[in-house]
Write a structure and sequence with these properties.
The structure holds two protein chains of two kinds.
Chain A (H helix, E strand, L loop, with lengths): L12 E4 L11 E7 L3 E8 L2 E9 L4 H13 L11 E5 L11 E2 L2 H13 L5 E5 L4 E6 L5 E7 L7 H11 L6 H4 L15 H13 L4 H23 L5 E4 L6 H11 L13 H15 L4
Parallel strand pairs in A: 2-5, 5-6, 7-10
Antiparallel strand pairs in A: 1-4, 2-3, 3-4, 7-8, 8-9
Helix pairs in contact in A: 2-8, 6-7
Chain B lengths: L1 E7 L3 E8 L2 E9 L4 H16 L6 E7 L11 E2 L2 H12 L5 E5 L4 E6 L5 E7 L7 H11 L3 H8 L13 H13 L4 H23 L5 E4 L6 H11 L5 E2 L6 H11 L1
Helix pairs in contact in B: 2-8, 3-5, 3-6, 4-6, 6-7
Classes of the chains: A alpha/beta, B alpha/beta.
């Protein structure tokens, strides 16, 4: 019998920089972002990115946080006790036993975005697993205003996972496949993911290809997110964090709708929260671990 | 003259045949993919039950989300109008009609003639409709018709944080993992649905002369939870709640 494939599942991984000798570092700080869908841990050695992990969140926050930090520590020779200061963030931030402090993910994403994409970033869109936030920040990555949708799966990574499962298409391929259509179809009309599922099935029964359904779903999602951004306003420069930033099916359609390009960097967009948390940890450490 | 009312719903198509203000026959079939085909099938079933031929029908009026999709109907009426007409016909004292269907729900304020005075509708989101309980029954691995009775066995009230059906599904799964009793989860599911519905009722104004209609009114867990949430000791539930809209459409045909 064919093995049950989980199309929503994205690749979990860990990374570290072999050129950094953490034993020589004066400050080791860590950020742990326990999100609703994914968890990341990131370690800074003297303010430089040394190692990180990007894993799926389990059924409870403390275990997910341990799994994430152990993932980042893997193959580095470093142990949890070597970390001088750590900050937790994300949905499960108050449930991270080894963190010295918890800071909201909005502050952390803005700070992380500032590091990743530079001080000119003014608008950060964090497209997470179960929420979506539009954030304004200043040249130091300090939040000046934000809006979020955390009530509804439409416009979140979870909504995209549901569609991946429904159409049996690996989530990583959705963006590219959504452009393999002769003509861009109209967006799906349902906002609600539950109804969009029925609508997608109906469209396929009426002869639409899977790629067309993906295109219609991606453009509906891009439109929904653009409405959230429209309420706060998009100020240049614009940067997208979170898992959906890796999906060109959403990103390009959103950029087209907004008429503005987002800044692209070499970093994994999913580490922004953990990176921001680690940067806060590093600052707090320099202030004497306040 | 026989008048047919067809309620083309998101999940089921209901047909009611009426003559001289009396119900002659009823039929219900799944909407399936082809709503028109399902409407024909339901109509034939009702005709068979009444022992009538198709020619006996004088006029056909549709309602429901597929009401425009039925080419053989004479005209259509909105769901709110059909619900109010049907509810007041069955329960002349009813002034607030709460219709909870598979994909839509609404609260309607009406007068003694079944005329709609005001209404609020939940149509963009599964959180306030039967689709919500269906998704939760799947997550709990309980047949839909057992979800309501199961919730009545709950021993405590636990909060559900998620409103969205997609997020609530993950929450239900976490609750199962943390060994929460399924009956308590089922109650939390109905409480969540009820709070959405009651929010609509409050928008049109609560009147104690209210009647619950729509397929979800069959669910005793929802009815119990609705009573608790709205703060009434007793709530009238239509005897055959899913047919009220079709009755209303047949009554509209008479006008």
């Amino acid at each position: 019998m064919a093995e049950l494939q989980e199309f929503w599942r994205w690749t979990e991984y860990t990374w570290n920089n072999p050129d950094i000798d953490w034993r020589k570092a004066k400050r080791i700080s860590a950020g742990i972002d326990v999100g609703s869908v994914s968890s990341q841990a990131l370690i800074l050695a003297d303010g430089q990115i040394f190692a990180f992990s990007n894993l799926r969140t389990g059924s409870n926050s403390p275990d997910s946080a341990h799994k994430a930090i152990n993932g980042a520590l893997k193959d580095t020779g470093m142990e949890l006790s070597n970390i001088n200061y750590s900050v937790g963030t994300g949905y499960g931030r108050v449930n991270i036993p080894f963190a010295n402090r918890a800071i909201t993910e909005i502050a952390c994403h803005a700070r992380g975005a500032n590091f990743m994409a530079g001080p000119k970033i003014r608008t950060v869109l964090d497209m997470g697993g179960q929420d979506c936030k539009a954030i304004h920040c200043d040249e130091r990555g300090k939040v000046s205003n934000f809006l979020m949708n955390d009530k509804c799966a439409a416009g979140t990574g979870r909504g995209m996972e549901v569609m991946a499962d429904l159409l049996s298409i690996p989530i990583k391929e959705i963006g590219e496949l959504s452009y393999q259509v002769d003509k861009e179809p109209p967006p799906v009309s349902s906002t609600c993911v539950v109804f969009a599922k029925s609508e997608a099935l109906g469209l396929m029964r009426s002869g639409w290809s899977k790629n067309m359904v993906l295109a219609a779903y991606c453009s509906a999602m891009a439109h929904r997110v653009s409405l959230l951004l429209g309420r706060i306003g998009v100020e240049d420069q614009f940067f997208i964090t979170g898992g959906i930033a890796k999906n060109p099916g959403i990103v390009k359609r959103l950029e087209k709708e907004l008429g503005i390009e987002s800044v692209k960097t070499k970093y994994d967009s999913q580490i922004a929260g953990a990176l921001g948390a680690a940067l806060f940890a590093d600052t707090l450490l320099q202030k004497g671990g306040a | 003259m026989i008048k047919a009312g067809i309620d083309v719903g998101a999940k089921t198509v209901k047909v009611v045949l009426m003559e001289d203000g009396k119900i002659k026959a009823k039929a219900k079939v799944l909407s399936g993919f082809d709503q028109e085909e399902s409407a024909k099938e339901a109509l034939e079933q009702a005709l068979k039950e009444a022992g009538l031929s198709r020619e006996a029908i004088g006029i056909i009026v549709t309602t429901g989300n597929g009401r425009k999709a039925i080419s053989f109907a004479k005209s259509d009426v909105t769901e709110a109008r059909a619900a109010a007409l049907g509810a007041v016909f069955l329960y002349p004292a009813a002034r607030t009609v709460i219709d909870v269907g598979a994909e839509e729900s609404r609260a309607i304020k009406c007068d003694a003639a079944g005329k709609v005075l005001d209404f609020a509708v939940n149509e963009k989101c599964a959180a306030g409709s039967g689709a919500f309980t269906e998704a939760m029954a799947r997550a709990l691995e309980v047949p839909l018709e057992e979800l309501g009775p199961l919730s009545l066995k709950a021993t405590q009230s636990i909060p559900m944080n998620a409103q969205c059906a997609v997020f609530a599904e993950s929450e239900v799964i976490s609750l199962i993992h943390s060994k929460t009793d399924k009956a308590d989860i089922a109650r939390a599911v109905h409480d969540g649905l009820s709070s959405r519905v009651v929010a609509m009722v409050r928008r049109v104004g609560l009147d104690s002369e209210l009647v619950l209609i729509g397929g979800v009114a069959h669910n005793p867990g929802f009815v119990e939870s609705f009573k608790r949430t709205v703060g009434l000791d007793d709530v009238r539930t239509a005897a055959e709640p899913d047919f009220v809209g079709a009755i209303g459409a047949a009554l509209a045909a008479a006008e």
